Amino acid sequence: MSLLVFLSVLVVATFAELVSNDRPLVARYAGNWYFPILSNPPETAFGGDFKTPTEWHDPLIREQFSKPGNWALFTFNQYDANALNYFASAADPAPPDDGRWLGTDPAGRDMVARLLYGFRISIYFGLALTIAGTLLGILIGAVQGYFGGRVDLATQRVIEIWNAIPELYVLIIVASILEPSLLVLLCVFALFGWISLSDYVRAEFLRNRNLEFVKAARAMGLSNWQIIRRHVLPNSMTPVITFLPFRMSAAILFLTSLDFLGLGVPRLPSLGQLLREGKENLDAWWISMPTFAVLVLTLLLLTFIGDALRDAFDTRKS
User: Fold this and answer.
1) Which of 40, 55, 171, 272 could form a Cys-Cys staple with 260, CB 3.0–4.6 A?
2) pLDDT of 252-300, one tens digit each?
3) Are 299 and 246 in contact (CB under 8 A)?
4) Rounded Cα distance, 127 and 244, in Å
């Protein structure tokens, strides 16, 4: 059930532009069809005075489309993550109302859109970091566990030294050299995110490499790569699979913490940035409370998924 809910929310976040956007999906004006979500036409196409892209919250544009024969099909929420309503009467951050279901942030941007787009960035970053860390962890852990001996000993000493390097300092140094971006954050965290998983893979390979089916494969003349790929790795994947949701939760918390501290990617909607804005505007409860609820529910769903995977692959249960 938790997996179905999580996948449903992930699908909604993937197609966020079709759920929350300040431009209509399709519009018909004066007998002509327009698809503003793909290409926003100039204001002059709808009776305006300027050739700038159409501001769909402009009262003039709304009046034009209220005339018979003209109509526009908007998304479920009529704002995107960075859209500003220049015609709003309330001061920002504004509380929830009929048009803004969760109000606005201090810059006047819609909170529903910010939460939706911020959730998508967090989930995609978590998935990318989980995949990168898992591949590195499996590769290094497999080499350690299968060959053992001096290879395992030397690699383990290198890992201990590497693990002693503080990630935050490395991130600060890299950020001072390169412009902060999700790719930079992903590369820095991926360099350190594989260590804990490699220990689990190493332990499984150390246990499985001396089993009878591995000895039989060696006796048949199979290469080390063939034995690892066909026999040892498939029988060592249980801790890897059960580890994935928890690794993804940690990745989401990493990104949220960095954005909350102001060390993340600027100008991108994120849950950490919204939490920081909520801390700076304690009276605006509609900023911090929904953001905290989204973060808690996301981590809770991932925890339930991890527990279910652990129970499903537990060899001690019949």
Assistant:
1) 272
2) 988 898 888 887 777 788 888 899 988 888 888 888 899 999 999 888 8
3) no
4) 9
What are the pLDDT digits (tens) for 146-163? 888 888 889 888 888 888
Q: Is the peptide bond before 93 cis (omega within 30 degrees of 0)?
A: yes
Most distant pair of Cα atoms in the chain: their distance:
83
What is the Cα–Cα distance from 264 to 276, expressed in whole angstroms?
12
Structure tokens at 170: 């490395």
Return phi, psi of residue 216, to 5°.
-65, -35
The single residue listed with the structure tokens 């015609």 is 87
Backbone dihedral region for residue 315 (phi beyond 0: left; psi -120 to 50: alpha; all else: beta): alpha
CA dihedral 307, 311, 312, 313 (to 10 degrees): 100
